[in-house]
Predict the structure.
Amino acid sequence: MVYKTSGVCSSAISFEIDEQGKVHDVKFQGGCSGNTQGVARLIEGMDAKEAISRLEGIRCGFRPTSCPDQLSKALKEALN
């Protein structure tokens, strides 16, 4: 799936969710490279619902969202 982000430096997030609900191959387009790579590696193989609960609501400075928060929104959309 490719999710177009909003309100953050990255422009899109691509990922897969397998038949067991695990997250794989997360890649951010743009954004803070070190941070987005770190988030992607940390949630590799994690249950999508668990990833959502850990990432949802994280803010980036004064912004009401962040790249991890946008990933939680993308995962929610993919599960629905």
